[in-house]
Amino acid sequence: MAVDSILSSPLGPPACEKDAKALQFIEEMTRNADSVQENVLAQILRRNADTEYLRSFNLDGATDRETFKSKIPMVTYEDLQPFIQRIADGDRSPILSSHPVSEFLTSSGTSAGERKLMPTIKEELDRRQLLYSLLMPVMNLYVNGLDKGKGLYFLFIKSETKTPGGLLARPVLTSYYKSDHFKTRPHDPYNVYTSPNEAILCPDSFQSMYTQMLCGLYDRLQVLRVGAVFASGLLRAIRFLQLNWRQLADDIRAGSLNPKVTDPDIVTCMARILRPDPELADFIVSECSKEKWERIITRIWPNTKYLDVIVTGAMAQYIPTLDYYSGGLPKACTMYASSECYFGLNLNPMSKPSEVSYTIMPNMAYFEFLPHEAAPAPVPPQLVDLADVEVGKEYELVITTYAGLYRYHVGDILRVTGFHNAAPQFQFVRRKNVLLSIDSDKTDEAELQAAVESASRLLKGCETSVVEYTSYADTATIPGHYVVYWELLAREATAGPTGEVMERCCLEMEECLNSVYRQCRVADGSIGALEIRVVRNGTFEELMDYAISRGASINQYKVPRCVTFTPITELLDSRVLSTHFSPSLPHWAPDRRRS
Ligand code: AMP
User: What atom in ligand 1 is closest to the CA of residue 315?
Assistant: First the structure.
């Protein structure tokens, strides 16, 4: 219901008064992006002027951009690690932040094989909460009636550790779900979840998932949106249903709870929800026992209007599988965030994944942008302010946060697609990294993804797709070569691709890789033929289970696109069904423009 009496927003008519305020806030922040940024920087520098870190750069109380840019260096995690270590060890003096570090958020990014520890302060929760509070008002502009039902979201916490100095270290979402902001959130008809808090907050991932799925099945006709943080999380839930539907249906038939679910809070809470429903049980059995699981999401939850999952960046490879299970439902990528800082939101969340742009909210932190240029960068590098980035250009994100990161390289590369008012909008391009290297070649995630995508098109004829992949630079042989592990999904009961098709896939991947790779392969002979190893179904789930058993969070887990850790490669190799090599050399010709 659009409320006529409330202020209309340039973004569209708000659904209720609360939404009107949120949309107005977005308008204010984005219209005044530059001055908001100036104030944010001044606030951060003023309050942290007496920190050991800032004092060492002799800012002398200055809070202006010019002094800041001339005196404070750009840093990476490795530069800050000694400071972070002291905080972790219990030094409570104002090292990076004048406000006490309340806990560490463990990033999925690692340093020297360990998860990065991001210091945070209490008030950051409010800032994150503020960004969350903007998501539904924006979504309500595009999808009506979300107050008439519920969201089935698979949300998880993971166990936390303590640093030697006694600070908690846990993923940002665990911190959020365990906070009062989440646990005691006021009722909001636009944000009702099928999952009870007790299920979300259960540290046992099986019990948590089982209960969340059970509740989602009971409420199936009320479910209007289905989601998880990342696409991989939602697919994991579908896989869980595949493995557990019989037990779930038995529970629904009898109104009982699987004896494996023993968490006392869940047991108490489910006693209020469980009821025998033989009709629903019959329905689940009839749908789940069908051979094809195509459109299973819309078959079980027929009122689903969209999937709420991130499918940008490394998650893009899940789009075909999500489309298969959902019959092509819209996939809403609502926000862009990290452990270091929540960055912004998608003001057009129903846009196609390839067109998703995130608007960075200028109140969240101070943002700078390092032009990501092929040409040698000027020394010292010239960072650009949020309001000054140029459409079409790519930048690396550099942030200065209230919690004490100053000019910190996030490692993400973003492309400017346009502006909302004075605030730029960014497409997430990739995380800056090099995945594979044998010689002078450097293959990053985006290149590998494109090569897999292109090669997997050759599988269309045999009704097969690549559901998961990872890679490995095999240097045990000379010359070394790229190994790419593929897990395949055959849509129908088909024989799958022949060895010849798989060889063509190997070559097609090579054709798609960059010219340095192909030069090494063709002219230098320093790289051997690319190899594809087809692994058994379920292998990548085992990989995830392994990562989780070693402390990764389900919410944040992303399939590593390159594996180097021996137990992982051993696991993969023990699941190989067949291996295939590129049968000939890819094309390569010297770049004439340079000669
Ligand atoms: P973490 O610190 O483990 O939470 O990971 C944060 C990183 O996840 C970001 O720096 C991005 O590289 C990635 N990420 C977060 N949100 C998105 C998004 N909406 N699209 C693509 N990548 C994202």
Answer: 21
CA dist 43 and 281 (Å) reads 57
Ligand 1 near 309 CB (within 6 A): no
Strands 114-121 and 150-154, by their bridges, are unpaired
- What stretches of 342-495 show up as alpha helix (H) in DSSP? 445-456
Q: Which of 92, 256, 229, 253 is nearest to 174 (CA)?
A: 229
Q: Which two tokens stand for residue 150?
A: 């519920």
The overall pTM is greater than 0.85: no
**Other beta carbons less than 10 A from residue 591's beta carbon:** 9
- In three-state secondary structure terms, 180 is helix
Q: Taking the CA of residue 95 as centre, how many other CA atoms within 13 Å lie in the half-sphere pointing to its CB?
A: 18
Q: Is 251 in the pocket of ligand 1 (CB under 6 A)?
A: no
Atom nearest to 173 CA in ligand 1: 4
366-425 per-position pLDDT tens digit: 999 999 876 666 777 889 999 999 999 999 999 999 999 999 999 899 999 999 999 999
CA of residue 337 to ligand 1 center, whole Å = 6
Which residues are bridge partners to 566 per DSSP? none
Residue in 168, 319, 351 with CA at minimum distance from that of residue 234: 319
Query: 């869980």: which residue's tokens?
Result: 240
- Counting Cβ atoms within 10 Å, is residue 111 exposed (0-12), middle (13-18) or buried (19+)? middle
Q: Which protein residue's CA is at the shortest distance from atom 16 of ligand 1?
A: 336
Among protein residues, the one with the nearest Cα to ligand 1's atom 6 is: 338
Residue-wise pLDDT for 98-145, tens only, equals 999 999 998 866 554 356 899 999 999 999 999 999 999 999 999 999
